[in-house]
Write a structure and sequence with these properties.
By secondary structure, the protein is mainly alpha-helical. It is built from 14 helices and no strands. This is DUF455 family protein.
């Protein structure tokens, strides 16, 4: 390996991009990742398959991180910060608008993982090879890191498609139709980097002439049965009360997908906030999905079939008609800041460590507690800006929202109990 030029290959070659051209291309990449973050959030409550939902949570976060890195790099290429968030190409805007209206799990998977992200991979590999290796090393480093995520995402998408086909759950017609339209949009945009010959035939809107509406109820797989507004047990008896509490804690973690879906609704619906707000909410969303995976892993390690039980979806279903600021105050201040008080999160951790001595749940609760500290901080940072009020006012709002929420949960539980008699 050469040690000159810090090991950079081809240091004498002239790159394909000057500063202005490079900034324009990176703006396109930034826009695509940013829009995928928002669109993924809009789609999350509507998707049924559990494994698709969990992967969406992760990929929303990874797209947010990619967009954040690209935003910074674009701002370093003589682009005023005020211009960084602009839409760079109407054909790319149409591309994103049409993906937003994916109607099925199959359409979403096909759109993102067989069209959009493979096209990004191709563009990034070309960009890395063709740019000047010294002057643009910061871009190369960013694109290489994003490529690691993209390639893993596409591999996951291919496996997901194979699984859906094997299970007889793949819907080919709508997926093929949407992917054909998206490829036409990419052609009209001159490719992801606008370096291909552009088509003068701009596709018409097919689905996106309608306004996208978040679902009124979050969706789950049919085999999970009906969703519920109150928590249900695993439907089994335990000899020791602590065992019942431990499994109940696992189940509460597993059902935190509903919190992720509520954050997704806020991320999609709340307009006009600084970019850092959306980046933080993407992190918050993925954390809640990870918590659901904590519970899934813990239940499965105990041999418990969590998919056989009705799924609790109240965080989303009860709060969905409220304004985004009230939704986020309910969760980040009412629920998560409240969990900082004893016994709260520290009590859950100590119970797993000291009373039941369960190593896996001890570690899960340790990290759950750490995440909740971050989320409460997000709430204290952003809810004052959402409301234009001090935290004291917001805590009162959150208390009111909590009272309403738990009233609705109790009402649903009472109705269900009466129907069983």
């Amino acid at each position: 390996m050469e040690i000159t030029f810090t090991g950079i290959a081809n240091p004498h070659s002239i790159g394909a991009f000057g500063v202005d051209a490079n900034a324009k291309i990176l703006q396109r990449y930034r826009f695509i990742h940013e829009r995928l973050m928002f669109i993924g959030a809009a789609q999350l409550p509507a998707r049924h398959n559990w494994d698709i939902k969990t992967a969406m949570g992760r990929h929303i976060y990874e797209d947010a991180e990619a967009a954040d890195q690209l935003r910074t790099r674009v701002s370093h290429l003589r682009t005023p910060l005020a211009n960084v968030g602009q839409e760079p190409d109407p054909a790319l805007t149409l591309l994103m608008d049409e993906i937003l209206h994916a109607r099925t799990d199959s359409e979403w998977i096909a759109s993102v993982y067989t069209v959009i992200k493979p096209a990004l991979i191709e563009a990034y590999k070309s960009h890395i090879q063709r740019t000047q290796q010294i002057v643009d090393q910061p871009t190369i480093r960013i694109l290489r890191s994003i490529l690691l995520d993209l390639e893993e995402q596409v591999n996951w998408g291919e496996a997901a498609i194979a699984h859906l086909k094997n299970e007889g759950e793949w819907e080919e017609a709508g997926s093929e139709e949407l992917c054909t339209l998206l490829k036409r949009c990419i052609l009209a945009a001159g490719g992801m980097s606008n370096e291909m010959k552009r088509s003068t035939e701009i596709p018409e809107r097919v689905r996106s002439f309608q306004v996208y509406q978040l679902p009124k109820k979050s969706q789950r797989e049919a085999r999970m049965g009906e969703t519920t507004l109150y928590r249900t047990s695993m439907g089994m008896k335990f000899e020791k009360p602590n065992d019942d509490r431990l499994v109940g804690m696992m189940r509460v973690r597993q059902e935190e997908m509903t919190a992720a879906e509520l954050i997704a609704a806020v991320l999609w619906s709340q307009k006009g906030m600084p970019w850092a707000f959306y980046r933080d909410l993407a992190r918050h969303l993925w954390d809640e999905v990870r918590h659901a995976l904590f519970g899934q892993a813990a239940l499965e390690a105990e041999g418990l079939n969590w998919r056989s039980r009705p799924q609790y979806t109240s965080d989303y279903d009860i709060n969905i008609e409220k304004i985004p600021s009230a939704q986020y105050a309910w969760l980040s201040i009412g629920i998560e800041e409240g969990a900082m008080k004893r016994p709260g999160k520290v009590g859950e951790f100590e119970f797993c460590r000291d009373q039941v001595k369960h190593p896996l749940m001890t570690q899960f609760q340790d990290y759950d507690w750490a995440d909740e500290v971050v989320h409460a901080s997000f709430g204290r940072t952003w809810t004052p800006e959402l409301f234009g009020e001090e935290l004291g006012f917001i805590r009162e709002v959150a208390k009111h929202e909590l009272d309403h929420f738990f009233s609705e949960v109790r009402k649903a539980e009472e109705i269900a109990a009466a129907e069983e008699k």
